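Record type: monomer structure entry
Structure origin: computed from sequence
Chain ID: A
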Amino acid sequence: MSDSPGAGRADRPEGRGPRLVAIGTVVRAHGLRGDLKVRALTDEPARFDSLLGCVLWDPDRDVRLERRVERVRRQGEHMILKLSGVDGVDAARGLIGRLVAVGESDALPLADGQFYPWQLEGCRVETADGTRVGEVAGIERSPAHDLWVVADGVREHLVPAVPEIVVDVNLRARRVVIRPPEGLLEL
């Protein structure tokens, strides 16, 4: 019962507003009154049923539009949202591609062993034999998988977030163990 840690986006660019967690994407206008057809990015689409407010977010420009949720209904695998201030098909069309987001404090809890990407920031990274690599400084998206930016104060390493490399993530201990293939840390 959680927002999907892999599908959703969670960012707080330096100097910008609070961290947001994406729970959906506006895919098109629905009808003539400004309703939005939204593809859920959460493991729990029912979370939309009790949604009182959201942020329509363009993460590339960090444009955030706070809106009150007036109505929600399901249509197949999509949600149809009516939001305050979105009146008419032209206004709705202007929001296609925006993320539907909630604040970090409103993100659903995750199951054991799952984490949101931002929770890794600042975690110590070491190899399976205990050699310190650095700390997670950020996460870069790529089509295949996320790349964790691991900084050691001198260099930054891009570590693919795949099970073959990431051996263990212990958020309580703020520690990540990796088994990098030969040459990865020399790139």
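Annotation 1: The helical segments are 89-93.
Annotation 2: The domain at 10-106 is CATH 2.40.30.60 (Elongation Factor Tu (Ef-tu); domain 3).
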